[in-house]
Amino acid sequence: MKFLVLLCLISIVEVKELPSGFEKCHQSDPKINSCLNIAIQNSLKILKLGIPSFNIPPIEPLKFDYIADDSSPSSTMSLNSVFKNAELQGLADSKIHKTTTRFKNKFGLKSESFTKKLDFVGQYSMTGQILILPIRGEGFMNISLNELTTKHELTGDFYKGSDGQSYINITNYRVKLLPKLVIFRFDNLFNGDKTLGTTMNNLLNDNWEIVFESLIPGYEKNFGDKFKEIANRLFSQVPFELIFPK
Ligand SMILES: *[C@@H]1O[C@H](CO)[C@@H](O)[C@H](O)[C@H]1NC(C)=O
Ligand SMILES: *[C@@H]1O[C@H](CO)[C@@H](O)[C@H](O)[C@H]1NC(C)=O
């Protein structure tokens, strides 16, 4: 008897429900898309502070220890850059729209978020060429994305966990960043030469669209990888049907 009770307790402990405050959207709900817009919107409030019991870090700010930008050279840029102790500020204030899902064979979710101001700040170090001009420096940076629309596209596989339940594994998280304006600030360019540094920052900002165009693939990849990691912390711990009941 005692043994049975113990077994029951263990199995109760093992299958996790969604963290409290997360809403469930039913697969059969004809309004599942608007349900998900609201559910994801509300989950941002919880994700803002992180969910320690799921090992999910706070997304406000969302920290990146180290990013090596491996984007391939373009006609306007060839750059080696590294970001350290970088973070995204403003993610939790995003508005969620246009969510759609699919559950047949594979899991799919598309969504759009709008963020009034998303700042990517931290320590940079770079050397190379931007707009055909040499650039090098090391120090504080702030890349401010204004009126930003982000398109999210997640695809995943279903798999059976060791508990026999079905789980989602997000295999691909694609991010597309569409800002209305980008403001660059790189401190301490050219060994701290003030005149050259100011000139270069002005040049980057006057031509932000071209500059951002070449930087974007690296950012989209790094942000997507980070978002995938967070999504999988949740999806790997809560069975699919406890997130999306039938
Ligand atoms: C980054 O730049 C934006 C836009 O200029 C500004 O609003 C924000 O306060 C800056 N953040 C930091 C940490 O300097
Ligand atoms: C999830 O997918 C990745 C490939 O994207 C794979 O390496 C990993 O083993 C998968 N995890 C599970 C639990 O199936």
From TrEMBL:
Parts of the chain that traverse the membrane: none
InterPro entries, alphabetized: Haemolymph_juvenile_hormone-bd (IPR010562), To_sf (IPR038606)
Gene3D superfamilies: Haemolymph juvenile hormone binding protein
Keyword Glycoprotein: no
Coiled coil: none
Homology family: Belongs to the TO family.
Record-given protein name: Uncharacterized protein
Organism of provenance: Polypedilum vanderplanki (Sleeping chironomid midge)
